Amino acid sequence: MKERLYEILNEEKAHEIIPFLKQLSHEERKALIPTIKKLDREISKIIMTKNSYHTAGSADQHSIIDIASFVCMDQKHYGKDYWSFFRDKEQTTKILEWGCPPWFSDFINDSVEAEFTAFNYQDILGWAEKGYVQPRPELLGYHLSLQPHELEKNPDTLETHFWYMCEFPSKSLPFQREWFPVVQKLIGENKIERRRFLKECLLAANRNFNKNVTGWFMDAFNALKPSDEELILLQDELMAGLASVQSKAVNTVLAHLKKIVADPEFRTGEFSHFLPNLLSSEVKTVVAASLTVTERIFQKRKKDTENLGLALSAAFVSKDESIQTKAAKIILKYVPVSEEIKEALSHYADNILANVRPGLVQYIENRPLELDAVDPEKLELISEESRIQKPESFEDLMFFLPQAIENPGTWHYDMALDGLIRFANEADEGSVKLFEPVFQKACKTVAKWEVHHFNVLLCNLIINYGLLLLDKFPAQLKNLEKIYKRTCEDEATREVYSSYHKKLGPLKDIYAGGLAMEPFKRIAVYVFEKITSGDQKPLLSTLTHEPCWVSPEALVERLEIYQNTDSEPKNLDMQLALQRCSLEKTSHALKLVEEKLKGEYKDLLLFFFNKNSAPKGKFEHPSWWMTAGITCSPGKVFEEFKDFGYDDIPEEFLSGIYNWKTIDSKKNSYYPVELNIDVPKYHLKKRQHPLFLEYFIAEQKHFAEIPSFMWSFPNTLGNVFAKIIKYCLFYSGLAEVYERNLVLSTAQALHQMKKPLDAMGLLFLGTIFLDGDKVIRGTAAEIWLEHVSHKAMDNAELGRVIGLHEKLEWAPIKRFTDILQHQMLNVSKDHNLALEQLLAHILLQMETPVTNLKKILDIYHEVLALNQSEADKNLKEKLNTWKENSSLKKICNLLLKK
């Protein structure tokens, strides 16, 4: 049976595959499945030629396997291939006529989730007519929405399926351009009921469609220009549309409601029920349109407006002055003073802006806003709460390793290495059974095309350890060989691509990400050597506290183990431990050094833990001393190190301080304003004692793991920030997902570190405050809020950075002012004082007025009012100049009066 299938495939006898399959029993077809899968892998291998590539199999061979797969497999084994088998429509029809599998109808109905299919709406109608498929409404709606020209070809299409399409359109594609003219024509011919279609358009607002599809229905509704009579009849659907999560739908509904507010049948009470949520929207156009409709209702109607007036108070959730001003004007004009409106406004009193508050004096108590001062706590790098819990047994380690694979480049990686050193040789016949799923996960992860570099190392370490265990426990781990063989076969199919780097094999031979990853690769090789030799001495660099810290006491204790066993730690491991060591509290560690260490270990740590001390002793390991000096006193030159031979490393890399400037690229319209940072080129030098740092600075490419390197240089982050700024933040309009993800990961890592920011940290933070991504800007605000709470933010320098960027309009100021209003204003008294300083130093960098400068001045005025302060005296001259600008005159005069 297998031999016959091989013969048909090898001789490309496509006409013989169906007769062959017909004569097989159900059990025989099922038995062929493994062979079919194996042959499919073989013919799907990629063959590279000089100018192109192709699969190993011919078109006939692929057809043979497609047919065999469809006939022999069940739905689970066949998968979700809606393309290969269905390309030849004539052949598909013949096979379905001979024997349609029982799972075919469910399989086709599930195609609404597929990205591509080789069949269409007409094919489905044909299969339904023959009884092969019992199509669900979702299936018919989805496929019809992709083919507008099919509307008039079948009587059921217009009568039933068109309405399915309104309810279940394609999820993956927006409506095509020709759709609406066809619908409009059929409405005109009374073939599609106009009122029902208008209703369906409005119902689309809450059907969880994608933005394009919802937008199409809203555009269709607008284009049909519903009359006031139709709008009154559709009030149920219009009001329901106000609850949509899509702003276009809400704005469309509001625009039409505005037309009918004067009608006696308009439901003012129902609208007032939705108004608080509308006014709380983050979308300014929705809030403004809601206020416009509300004002129109007050103008046109004299009854049933009590609840409307109370609902208006929700507008003061917004910190936008134009919104608050408009809401206040409506209240003053149409809402009489009462206890109810006073009570409603009292809930928002603390949020009402200083410029708006005096106008509402009849409605609210005109008292200064009293915010609590923050009781500052010192930012602690390490604490008992952040101590990492290590696996305590082989069984613990087996449950932990999958977590480490799921969290590459974090402290989980270090705990995995540490656990393998401690427990690798504790496996027994009972516990070793827990290893198979870990091995399988490692194989499955490393077999992907794109693998995080830290996972390449960890997964290979697990796999190589598994092969050692297989020799010891062949009966318990018999499946490992099969899993490993299949993984090797999968990788072999990709090795034909010149761009593919081998990810499976002995650790020393695999590619794990270039120069920057080389130190980690060497440490991983060292860990495997320790596993094979049974050496359980710990790595010095294993973290003790999240997210990236080694406590100074732990470093002393680990070095004592090496000292007592008369062994020497690996150079790169020692440097990584020094780089990660927390230096905020070292007095207790200094006592331990005096008590427990001797020789170079003692001299090195006495220097490292005491920032004001000079290096003394024998410098047997120059790289250790140099790393200690860079980490504890970045930028400081130690005369004692002058003969170490590291003077060829540019100063920026040793200090972490780089020159930068925001420039106007007048000749480059694509990047009109750029952030330039000078990062010197550096090529790795061959030297006896290389620095861990050198591998990172010599890496010329930018790569996805850059944020993970923050955990390796937590005391000196300047070099990491410089790379991110150079590659991902040079232009504020950069919209690529890859760069955005790198910046977000870096910002989130910085937020986790709880560390005061140096000059490069402030440059990074000030720049991401202006990033195009809202989540990134929000993360920047969270970092600022936390650092201000701990009295650890240099607002003057941060303001200088933002001001120098915006002086040339590097990014739209609105990005920053939105974050200011929604996340940073009125958090506490201390935050308002910090904000005053921040805004003053931003404005001090400005020269001629820039777009939206008024917005910053408005917020600055609000902050001064809250703090009962005056404008910075150094700003007075600028304000006198700026008030010559008509749009700035009023706010500048207000600030000059302060």
TrEMBL record:
<dbReference type="Pfam" id="PF25148">
    <property type="entry name" value="DUF7824"/>
</dbReference>
<dbReference type="Pfam" id="PF25149">
    <property type="entry name" value="DUF7825"/>
</dbReference>
<dbReference type="InterPro" id="IPR056726">
    <property type="entry name" value="DUF7824"/>
</dbReference>
<feature type="domain" description="DUF7825">
    <location>
        <begin position="657"/>
        <end position="897"/>
    </location>
</feature>
<feature type="domain" description="DUF6493">
    <location>
        <begin position="2"/>
        <end position="285"/>
    </location>
</feature>
<dbReference type="Pfam" id="PF20103">
    <property type="entry name" value="DUF6493"/>
</dbReference>
<dbReference type="InterPro" id="IPR056727">
    <property type="entry name" value="DUF7825"/>
</dbReference>
<protein>
    <submittedName>
        <fullName>DUF6493 family protein</fullName>
    </submittedName>
</protein>
<feature type="domain" description="DUF7824">
    <location>
        <begin position="384"/>
        <end position="650"/>
    </location>
</feature>
<dbReference type="InterPro" id="IPR045472">
    <property type="entry name" value="DUF6493"/>
</dbReference>
<dbReference type="InterPro" id="IPR016024">
    <property type="entry name" value="ARM-type_fold"/>
</dbReference>
